[in-house]
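Worked Example 4.2. Consider the chain below.
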Amino acid sequence: MSGNAQADQIRALLEAGKLGWLEIVVDPWEGYGPGTAEFIAEWEAEFPNEFVTAAGDDSADDKIFAYTSPSLGGGMPQGGLIDADFNWETTGIYEAMPAALTKYGN
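Applying the procedure from the previous section yields the following structure tokens:
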């Protein structure tokens, strides 16, 4: 299945309330530092989407980079699938999208 077809199906699951989307925002203009409330507001104004919740990463030691991409030593952009109990099911956007469709698509 193409990436666009997967994205369309993910969008439909978001609209149906079967999935949620959390965007962890870091500030690329400040050395990928914490996503402040001001920066998050700018981000949401530039990329409005009622199905995406933006949150800042204020960890001083860049924990989010290491946690989201251990094979690469941390990095952005990155994706993953976390279940309702906050357990990582997959890391990597190319793994997360098909896993979400398989688990939540029906």
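The beta strands are 21-27, 33-34, 52-56, 80-82, 88-91. The helical segments are 3-15, 37-46, 63-68, 93-104. Compare this with Example 4.1 before moving on.
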